[in-house]
Amino acid sequence: MCVLRPLGAVRPMHYAFPVKVFPGFCISLVLIFDFGYYVQAIRGEYQILAHRKSIDKLIADPKTDSKLRQQLQLVQRLRAFAKTELKLPVDGSYAKYVALHRR
Q1: What whole-number distance in Å separates Cα of residue 6 and Cα of residue 79?
Q2: Cα angle value 40/42/46 (rounded, 5°)
Q3: Cα separation of 97 and 68, whole Å?
Q4: 3 state DSSP class of 49
Q5: Residues 51, 57, 59, 64, CA torsion sign
Q6: H or E element that contains 54
């Protein structure tokens, strides 16, 4: 059976396929272009975690620079003040140090 349409009649367009595919396409683009960012972030976090050292050990080490040693001793005094005077939970906060070599 043949359906006759008047001249100029337009069939309605079906947008179901593009509407379903477009969000996935956008997510794929974001993942592809942000992949390098995530790799750099993971690498930087690993370098920080792998190279951290105990402040106590750095203060005791004779090779530690005197200026750095003084700064680390100040950190220890500030932690003690926070614990005793301010009654703050110090736990493991500011107990380790990492030299980032950044400017």
Answers
A1: 85
A2: 115
A3: 10
A4: helix
A5: negative
A6: strand 53-54
Round to whole Å and give the CA distance between 24 and 27. 5
How far apart, in whole angstroms, are the C-alpha atoms of residue 34 and residue 28? Answer: 10
Those residues of the chain that have pLDDT short of 50 are none
Provide the pLDDT for residue 85: 95
Q: What is the pLDDT of residue 8?
A: 58
Q: Where are the alpha helices (DSSP H) in the chain?
A: 16-51, 55-60, 66-84
Give the pLDDT score at 22.
74
pTM: 0.61
Q: Taking the mean position of all CA atoms in its chain, how far away is CA 102?
A: 18
Give the list of residues 6+ apart from residue 90 with CB closer than 8 angstroms, or none.
79, 82, 83
Instruction: Output the pLDDT for position 28.
Output: 77
The C-alpha angle with vertex 57 and arms to 56 and 59, in degrees rounded to 5, equals 65
